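Hey, I'm writing a tutorial for new members on how sequence and structure tokens pair up, and I'd like a real worked example in the thread rather than a made-up one. If someone can provide the structure for the chain below, I'll link this post from the tutorial.
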Amino acid sequence: MADLNKMDRTWLCSVLFMDIVNYSSQSVDMQMKWKQRFNGYLTEAIKDVPESERVMLDTGDGAAICFLGAPEAAMFAALQLCNSFVLDQREHQPGLSVRLGINLGPVKLVKDINGALNAIGDGINAGQRIMSFAADNKILVSQSFFEVVSRLSDDYKRMFQLKGVEKDKHIREHTVYHLLPPGTEKREQVLENAEGQAFPPTPERAIRVEAGPDPRAPQNRSMVWMVGGVGALVVLAALGAWRFFGSAAPPKPSTNAAPVAQSQASAPIPAPVAKVIEPTPEPPREKMPKAKAAPAPALPPPSKRESAAAPASAKAQAFYDQASRLLEEDKPDEAVRRFDDAIRASPDYVDAYVGRAEARRRLVQYELSLEDCNKIIRIKADDPRGYNCRGFARQLLKQYKQALPDFNEAIRLNPSFALAYDNRGSAYSGLQQYDRALQDYNQAIRLKPANALFHLKRAAAYLSLKQYDKAIQDYTQVIRAEPNNLKAYKERASAEEASGDKAGAAADLRRVQELRKDRRN
């Protein structure tokens, strides 16, 4: 294309930036396999985009593509690529995980040292920053890209959901949006658990199924993750088994809140790099009570929890009950409207604000959820749920340091608030202060020993500290309670591989394949 040879032109283009997760920690042989598959998926995704309308840059552990024509071309390519990476994880061990980011900005075309076409400019730089904020196999887009593409079609606009404001290493703020496949806009949840990290790399919704027994654990009913499809796009969705409701009336204090962390926030817990050491005997695997697994966090009726600062009217309570049922049916958008009705009927109805905050979190409306949490605190400053709610919203926005004071206050008001300890531990994990995280996870487990999610998160902290035997023991506890928990098998396999137990790792990976096969059937 003649125009491409004019180096004096500034292009306003859409830049799709991709980065293969954990690429540098792999062997050269695995890097070559991953890059070969990655290049194949990339070629397929852009085959319909004319060569004259794109510039491809190889970044070593990923790629960047400048789309010089229609901006929606970058959107469709990213969605197809994301689907390919999700399928790759199902079909290969280990599978590809890739972060994707799209930005619309200025780019200058130049020749590199080898005479090949290259690109520089803020369009490229900001695209890389947007990509760095994304979870594994997720797509984030910049404010500039959203503002242009969302105005092209109402259907396009519904595919974007606000994530929030992120700061890069240069303290530059970026407003970012999630890009979701068509048809999943309202049901999709960000693949983040209470730690604000992917869980697993892509979201999966929880359901109850019957499955064959784990060779190391008794057969039982539990939550597993399932893959659903929308047209040609496969969407994974996740639903954490945690709640945001604890007793609002604190018992007599028994512990003191930990001091606020002073280090800067950093990335979520990294995946461990396998390291072979001398094999260690498998730790004792005591019987653990089965954790209750629900398809969605349900709101207890107001009569079983502390009432609001002002008594709610009968009309408000009726709307609240309807909203609670809608949440149980996983209809958060409808639940929000019923909570709105309850609040209009009784403006100081704390329970309704708590419920609406949860519904908004499910819709990835974190800023609106944060407003509800603030309202709870203004109405009833001694209710620990308000602080736990606000801390969790900040955690989902990856504001780990800002979340800590809220969790401290929730624990001060209710020293037996197990979920607040768990959430504070997750904030410390986000700050990579794993020793402090373990203290909080230990306390949460002492208060709620049957909560499998607490064990799963403590195991991740142990794994980050390379305490593989303890991580294996926690993963085993989870599997005893939830024999079909695919993530627990995958992570236990990683811990076993790192500890030298290759036979155990192979057995767990076989179980992962069996669960995936059952799920597809």
